[in-house]
């Protein structure tokens, strides 16, 4: 489903670059991203909004690699961050602090201080306790903190339990019942500027309806607040729009946007700035993970295809039971051998370490497989479990293939550790 991805002379290419050639040059496991696909995805959000006051804030957590942020920052994209680490990444990549919104249910004082110091657009606040700390820190710094309250609209989209965030049972957001009171309190705090209202209901959402339900709750509250004279300048509808992994029915973000804009217009809020925080849908389809087949292990119960990428490189299958489509890097000749079903598994010592189950493939040891739509929550969730260095990453565009992160080395993994004999005891 990605125009940038195609077989040429039976070899899989991304934006015109052969993936087996990149694997030969850089080794595996290897993440490869298409810059063109990311830009196209961004345009899919921005084009429907051209005549509106809006800000697309890319959710950095989906893929926080500097060059990925840079591609988006150059287009003037905003960013949704959840830590000071993500803030520093955005600044290093050339993103403007004034286009940054800071989300997250737990923000440390040092993170808040840094964000106030660089002048972010908005703190998305999730509780009274957080609001009071923010107010105190801003007052101490003799600055003002711009604030939006994250509502918990009690809407549960149809998605995995672990990535559903807008329900009553979730830790996220301010309950509707107390939100108006908290806004009144915020409006009275001298170091707080009330600027927005926001929600985020989950991830990999494929229906418009839950967004509209959450938006309706939000607008009802806005009616109350504005009747009292409080003016809210932006409405942030969060992220969460899904991507296609195989051939699932799924509409483009512009359908979501047009439904949201219609609702805002109908309710008299069409003049407000619309903020949206997509992560997965900007980068997910643009990336692939290339892995080498280490060995084939047909057994009585199952056929195992053992590859050199594991759950530490791509945790989504193990963690969410997520389906990621897998293809051969070099298209096999179907007439030569009959296909079989294979479990594509990694080298990590866990039975949950699989990338795909029961896949019809014709794997050959030493050749490569490609896991598609791995650009979001792939590298950004990678770990060093089993002391496995994290993969290298490459950005391809119509003219170049650029190494944007070198492969980690074992030395990288050991460099922060001390043996007991070293002289760094904290107390005697
Ligand atoms: N805004 C907020 C406040 C969020 O918490 C998130 C994601 C987003 C925006 C972006 O959502 P997206 O457009 O990417 O769906 N690791 C999981 C997904 C976790 C999403 C967490 N929050 C996965 O691999 O499916």
From TrEMBL:
> What's the cofactor?
pyridoxal 5'-phosphate
Query: Which pathway is this protein engaged in?
Result: Amino-acid biosynthesis; L-lysine biosynthesis via DAP pathway; L-lysine from DL-2,6-diaminopimelate: step 1/1
Q: Which UniProt keywords apply?
A: Amino-acid biosynthesis, Decarboxylase, Lyase, Lysine biosynthesis, Pyridoxal phosphate
Q: Which HAMAP family match?
A: LysA
Q: Which gene encodes it?
A: lysA
Residues annotated as binding pyridoxal 5'-phosphate: 240, 277-280, 377
Record's catalysed reaction(s):
meso-2,6-diaminopimelate + H(+) = L-lysine + CO2
EC no. given is 4.1.1.20
Q: Where substrate is bound, by residue?
A: 280, 316, 320, 350, 377
Concerning NCBIfam families, the annotation shows:
lysA
Give the N6-(pyridoxal phosphate)lysine positions (modified residues).
61
Q: Which Gene3D superfamilies match?
A: Alanine racemase, Lyase, Ornithine Decarboxylase, Chain A, domain 1
Origin organism is Bradyrhizobium canariense
Which protein family is it in? Answer: Belongs to the Orn/Lys/Arg decarboxylase class-II family. LysA subfamily.
Q: Which InterPro entries match?
A: Ala_racemase/Decarboxylase_C, DAP_deCOOHase_LysA, De-COase2_C, De-COase2_N, De-COase2_pyr-phos_BS, Orn/DAP/Arg_de-COase, PLP-binding_barrel
Q: What does this protein do?
A: Specifically catalyzes the decarboxylation of meso-diaminopimelate (meso-DAP) to L-lysine.
Q: Where is the Orn/DAP/Arg decarboxylase 2 C-terminal domain?
A: 31-375
Assembly: Homodimer.
Record keywords: Ribonucleoprotein included?
Answer: no
Q: What is this protein called?
A: Diaminopimelate decarboxylase
